[in-house]
């Protein structure tokens, strides 16, 4: 069925530019020789300024015209007549965006349907604004740390900040990146349709906005990707008023700075906000249901994180309790009252009064109104869309629903921006007939506190269980930032790194880092895991001195593989390389 007139009008109303088209029909799996430009780390492609753009009225003619040299980066009109699009993506957060870019690169004709704002959570209410707040507040913390600065011979006067200015930095960054994402789609010919989408049958989707007759339509697609993301999860008994009791959605606007805030949940979102708030002068109380802070982190790393990120700061905490009842207050007039209940005994144990509460208890998948029964599927008991490892949606009997995929937070496999994007690319590969599976154990994660925490793979606790279950000897290599010249030059020697590996094979099971720029450092390890490199392969790689990367160099060099795997390792390859290079020269 052809796209409705309303859809076309909507595209025109949005000012979406259709880019130059290449050959009218390209094989579905054909690889467009796109020269992708990456600008924000989320697999974004060429900006509109780099790409020739023509108006939508020239689309058909351009599609028949001979292929100009650089036009292959734009979406190809490959829909075979039976469908409006090769691929329709519901939701244009980073997952949907990443999938759309890759699909165009693969020669598919693509539309995204977005019900709220391009960029979704990450760009508008997540990674991006939170990192802006962390950058600004981190600078304040650093410049107010007189002891740290004077140890390097630096003196500063009084350091002040403007709350509204910090908030504006976060807002402006989000809107800039949102604009970049939108232009990056338009410039390669992706149609951006506005509205909430729902399935009306196999390979058919209807979309629209409540109360807007001018927006919406129905489209068909050979394949459909669900990328509808998530929203903050709020436990029962906690009314959100958006002023004194709020989620990260409100907190990122930094509308006020309470003197004392309780943060419910000490996962990475709660921790990052504690970093922002304490740097800007707010006292924090953590309320955590399990017995230790930072559940999910490697225990040893969590202990050091507690020393570096909590103990020396105006932060206290209650663990093993839940906030069973929260009564909102009035800013500056009436406090918020929180009833604390023992997580195990369910007995009320305390009541505290604070100026504000941030609920950071995780994220819930957002699938409202998708009408999954129309494709024979339903969400699981936690609300996620069930998928297999190829991101194919499963029906209520556990069988694959043909031509429907789900990526990102909505499937709950790994609720991080880059995981959503990687899953989107993977789904497109599968759509193009090239079987692909994301190795989630190679996907890094980071918490952007000061200092940062990052990891990839399993924790030491899990690695020990695996060693027992599978009968191998676990190797643990550790190092400290205290021996790193670059970290010491910055007077930032606090931190450690740890690698877990199999002593018999050298397989890397996990790497954990806390310290300066840990979020950037983790990628050498995650790429090694993704490409199947073993410890003995990488321990002979050379790292520039003095750099923080030598922390990882130390980890790799500190590992000792035993038995036959240790022989014939990277040392031999490294020794052979110069001869080859000399011969080639
Ligand atoms: C405070 C905070 C900080 C974070 N920091 C980081 C970080 O530093 N690094 C990191 O990797 N991750 C971070 N995350 C997590 C990250 O934001 C998410 O994992 C990521 O945004 C998920 O991407 P997604 O594409 O699956 O979904 P989303 O980004 O949620 O996008 C889904 C989109 O789908 C749209 N949509 C939903 N339903 C429909 C429908 N029926 N029709 C049309 N459109 C629809 C929504 O409007 C939305 O735009 C953070 C999250 C928060 C809250």
Automatic annotation (TrEMBL):
Gene3D superfamilies in the cross-refs: 3.30.390.30, FAD/NAD(P)-binding domain
Residues annotated for FAD binding in this entry: 131, 228-230, 409, 415-418
Transmembrane annotation, as ranges: none
Domain annotation FAD/NAD(P)-binding: ranges: 85-424
Sorted UniProt keywords: Disulfide bond, FAD, Flavoprotein, NAD, Nucleotide-binding, Oxidoreductase, Redox-active center
UniProt similarity note: Belongs to the class-I pyridine nucleotide-disulfide oxidoreductase family.
One Gene Ontology biological process: 2-oxoglutarate metabolic process
The protein, known as: Dihydrolipoyl dehydrogenase
Domain Pyridine nucleotide-disulphide oxidoreductase dimerisation: residue ranges: 443-554
Cofactor: FAD
Organism: Chlamydomonas reinhardtii (Chlamydomonas smithii)
Active site residues per record: 545
């Amino acid at each position: 069925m052809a796209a409705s007139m309303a859809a076309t009008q909507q595209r025109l109303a949005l000012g979406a530019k259709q880019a130059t088209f290449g050959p009218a029909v390209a094989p579905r799996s054909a690889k467009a020789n796109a020269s992708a430009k990456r600008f924000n780390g989320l697999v974004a492609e060429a900006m509109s300024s780099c790409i020739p753009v023509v108006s939508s009225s020239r689309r058909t003619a351009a599609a028949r015209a001979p292929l100009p040299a650089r036009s292959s980066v734009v979406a190809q009109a490959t829909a075979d007549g039976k469908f409006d699009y090769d691929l329709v993506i519901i939701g244009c957060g980073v997952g949907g965006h990443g999938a759309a870019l890759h699909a165009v690169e693969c020669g598919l004709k693509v539309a995204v349907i977005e019900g709220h704002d391009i960029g979704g959570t990450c760009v508008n209410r997540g990674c991006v604004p939170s990192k802006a707040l962390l950058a600004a507040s981190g600078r304040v913390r650093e410049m107010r740390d007189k002891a740290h600065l004077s140890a390097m011979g630096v003196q500063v006067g009084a350091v002040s900040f403007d709350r509204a200015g910090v908030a504006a930095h976060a807002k402006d960054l989000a809107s800039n990146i949102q604009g970049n994402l939108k232009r990056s789609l338009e410039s390669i010919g992706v149609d951006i349709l506005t509205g909430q989408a729902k399935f009306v049958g196999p390979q058919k989707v209807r979309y629209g906005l409540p109360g807007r007759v001018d927006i919406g339509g129905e489209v068909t697609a050979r394949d459909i990707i669900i990328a509808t993301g998530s929203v903050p999860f709020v436990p029962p008994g906690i009314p959100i008023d958006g002023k004194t009791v709020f989620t990260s959605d409100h907190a990122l606007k930094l509308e006020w700075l309470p003197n004392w805030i309780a943060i419910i949940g000490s996962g990475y979102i709660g921790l990052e906000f504690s970093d922002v708030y304490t740097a800007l002068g707010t006292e924090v109380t953590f309320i955590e249901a399990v017995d230790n802070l930072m559940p999910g982190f490697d225990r040893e790393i969590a202990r050091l994180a507690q020393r570096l990120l909590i103990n020396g700061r105006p932060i206290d905490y209650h663990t093993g309790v839940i906030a069973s009842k929260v009564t909102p207050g009035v800013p500056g007039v009436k406090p918020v009252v929180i009833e604390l209940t023992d997580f195990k005994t369910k007995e009320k144990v305390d009541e505290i009064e604070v100026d504000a509460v941030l609920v950071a208890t995780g994220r819930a998948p957002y699938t409202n109104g998708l009408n999954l029964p129309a494709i024979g599927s339903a969400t699981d008991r936690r609300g996620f869309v069930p998928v297999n490892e190829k991101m194919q949606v499963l029906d209520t009997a556990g069988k694959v629903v043909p031509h429907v995929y789900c990526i990102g937070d909505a499937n709950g496999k790994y609720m991080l921006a880059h995981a959503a994007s990687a899953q989107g690319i993977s789904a497109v590969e599968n759509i193009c007939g090239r079987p692909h599976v994301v190795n989630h154990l190679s996907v890094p994660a980071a918490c952007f506190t000061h200092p940062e925490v990052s990891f990839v793979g399993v924790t030491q606790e899990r690695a020990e269980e695996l060693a027992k279950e599978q009968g191998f000897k676990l190797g643990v290599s550790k190092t400290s930032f205290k021996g790193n010249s670059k970290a010491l030059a910055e007077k930032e020697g606090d931190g450690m790194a740890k690698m877990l590996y199999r002593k018999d094979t050298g397989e890397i099971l996990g790497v954990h880092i806390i310290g300066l720029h840990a979020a950037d450092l983790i990628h050498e390890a995650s790429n090694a895991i993704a490409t199947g490199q073993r410890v003995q392969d990488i321990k002979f790689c050379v790292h520039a001195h003095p750099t923080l990367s030598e922390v990882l160099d130390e980890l790799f060099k500190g590992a000792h593989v035993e038995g036959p795997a240790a022989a014939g390792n990277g040392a031999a390859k490294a020794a052979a390389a110069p001869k080859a290079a000399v011969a080639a020269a």
